[in-house]
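input
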Amino acid sequence: MLLKRIFDIITSLAGIIALLPVFAALVVMIRFLSQRPAIFKQVRSGLNGRKFVMYKCRTMVDGAEGMKEGLNGLNEMNGPVFKIKNDPRVTRFGAFLRRSSMDE
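output
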């Protein structure tokens, strides 16, 4: 288990270093297009309800969390999940980031 953990850490660091120029370009592009912070911070629930902080590239307009109540009628999911196929809060560049999975 220790060797696997060491391998995971080393390969993760190598991947982060290799992709750093791509991440930097995304942050600059998001900042240029939205004039807002490029990184979005959110608290999520993980395994066994354990809370963790998640960081993502911003893909929605500023104030999207506050707009959620007005869109509850369009929610396509049940329970705590909120999902709209063509969410009007998502920016054009944000839609591209989501399609390409570069927002996470």
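quick obs: The mean pLDDT is 85.
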